[in-house]
Each structure stands twice: as C-alpha cells, then as structure tokens.
Amino acid sequence: MASAWKAERVRSATTTIFAEMSALAVATGSVNLGQGFPDTDGPDWMLGAARQAIADGVNQYPPGRGIAPLRQAVVDHSRRHHGLEYDPDTEVVITTGATEALAAAMLAFVDPGDEVVALEPFYDSYAASIDLAGGTRVGVGLFGPDFRLDHAELAAAFTDRTKLVLVNSPHNPTGTVLGRDDLAEIARLAVAHDVLVVCDEVYEHLVFDDAEHVPLATFPGMRERTLRISSSGKTFSATGWKIGWALGPAELVTELTAVKQFLTYVSGAPFQPAVARALDEGDAWVEANRVSLQGKRDRLAAGLRSVGLDPVVPQGTYFMTTDVRPLGYDDGVAFCRDLPHRCGVVAIPHQVFYDDVEAGRPYVRWAFCKEDAVLDEAVRRLGGLTA
C-alpha cells in the first residue's frame, strides 16, 4: 500500500495528459504538436561517432562521473559560451539527461518540510522530484497574458523554510527568457536568504531575436551556491540519448553524484564520446539549428494567426502558447481533447503545468520543432476550425 501511495503522489497531471494526447494522436492520425522533441536528428557526424563507439566496444560501465573527455568538453563549453570556469574532475558530473540531474538535486538537498521556490507553470518533473524528496513547492507565477516575472511575488515567496530555488530559463512551457533584471533579483534574494539555486538551462542555445541566455551563476555571490543543469538532448536534437550534466561547486556536485549512483549508476557509455565531440566541434551546427528553429517559430506563429489564434511569440525553447478563447473555448483541456477529432491536430493544455489551474486554463502549448511540411499540414488542418 505504501508504494502505491507514493506512486499516486508523484503521478502528475502532465504525465496523464501527455499519455492521453499521444494515444489520441495515434487513434485519430493527428499531426502531433504536443510532444516536445524534434522530428529530425542531430548532426550526422555526431551520430556516426556513437555508432563508432559501439563498434569499438565502448559498451560497458563508464566512470561514475562520466568519461574524462566529456567532462572536459562540458567545462570547455561553459568557458567558451558563458565565461564560467569549472574543474572537470570535481565540479561536473554526467547524468542520464537533465531529468536525472534535477531529481538527484532535489533528493540530495531537499528534506521533508523544506520549501522549494520555482517558476510556475512548472516543467512536469519538478513537482514529482520535490514530492519524492518530501519538500513543498512554492510557485511564483509566470502567468499570462505576458508571462513575465513579478518581483514582488518572488520576494514574498521566500520564508525561513526556503531551502532551494529552482530556476528554468529559457522557460518551458512559456518560452520566456529571464532578463538580467529578473536574474539580478533572484540572485539578490538567494544571497540574502542564503539558499541553494538549481538552474535548468537545457534550452540555453535555443534563444531568438534579441533575447540572451545569461547563467544565474555569473551574478555576484551565485557561483558558489548554484548548480547548473543542461543536456545534449535539446542542443543537439538527440533527446533519446539522455546525456546531461550538472556543473557547480565540488561539494554540491559530490552530493548530487552520491544520489545519482543509486538512480542510474552511470549514463550511456557509447553516447558520451559522441556528445563530447559535439560540444567541442558543434557550435556552427547549433547556431544553424537555432536559426532554423526561429524560422519554424515564425512559420507556426503566422499559421496560428491565420486561424484566429494570437500566439505569444516565445523568446526561447521550441514551444509556443496561445489563448484558445477566440475559438470559443475557455478551457484548454477541453480544446485539446476536441482538437484531434475536429481537425486532426494535437497540442498540450497549459493548466496541467500549474498548481493554480485557473491561471493556465485558457492556454495551450504548441511545439514547433517539426519539419516545415508538418507545421504547414497542421495549420492546414487547423483551418477547419473556422471553416
């Protein structure tokens, strides 16, 4: 009974709706703009490096913290892009995607009764990881219609029970990229309250127009209290490889690693040398992919406008949000459940990412990390909503 109770406690509305929407997509032959993964793979030379590693016998347990070339590549990448220096031997650990790194961080640092301040809407694994650790999440709203951070609400969220702040920027599902003023306020509060910070930066390279991703660890007093988490999955369009990493002070990385060894123990041996090569040699590919995704964003935005929706054009990630009330719906879940049957398209309702369900009720998330022909077909089908 205890294990069943635990499973129910961490089973999120997000997981349930994703499964439902995926099943509907298959049953109705819908274009799936719900799930957030690209429909094209990363660079051929990276894929080839993984195949070569398998052929060369790189198929047994790698070192627990990850192979040395990958840890060095992660450190070099951080220095090159953000000017942040880390020790490859003590201040980085390779994880089974960012999801494991986030879960391990919550389990390592959050005790029963501790509060975790996080941006709401939450990426789905946050609530489950905090619950598993016995913590209490305290949401600070990035609510519509503008999805911007309220500094007064942020300050009010801190109490004497606050143990950790969980920051996701670029932010899934809203596409918001926190500005320097937002980051400076988070840094000020973290230092004033002497709390740890975990930064989910998996979309660090998927920023558009004049937006910039600035790591919170670059702000005064933050490097020594911040764990930075990222992943090859989003950067190099290899979400199924599940190779991520955490960077931070040696003490924090050691604590996270102690938990990781009882989750997955080690991570994807033949993928590690391939990701190391991608980090070392892939900057041009990453930039070309970013430009391509910005074009896809604009393509889908124009298409959604053509069917009567007014998209919130994201600054980052590969997700776009619309308010569905112009199409006669006041509930995103109802809209997403009807959509596959009405016109053969799948999206994800925002409200499953919220504790404050009413704040997310009219909004829907669309993924634009798809081939142009797929986006065009989705828009063509959506045209049937207003025909």
UniProtKB/TrEMBL annotation:
Its cofactor is pyridoxal 5'-phosphate. Pfam families: Aminotran_1_2. Keywords: Aminotransferase, Pyridoxal phosphate, Transferase. InterPro entries: Aminotransferase_I/II_large, Kynurenine-oxoglutarate_AT, PyrdxlP-dep_Trfase, PyrdxlP-dep_Trfase_major, PyrdxlP-dep_Trfase_small. Residues 31-382 form the Aminotransferase class I/classII large domain. SUPFAM superfamilies: PLP-dependent transferases. The keyword Cell membrane does not apply. The keyword Transferase applies. It comes from the Bacteria. Its EC number is 2.6.1.17. One of its GO terms (molecular function) is succinyldiaminopimelate transaminase activity. Signal peptide: none annotated. It is an enzyme of class 2 (transferase). This is N-succinyldiaminopimelate aminotransferase. It comes from Microlunatus capsulatus.
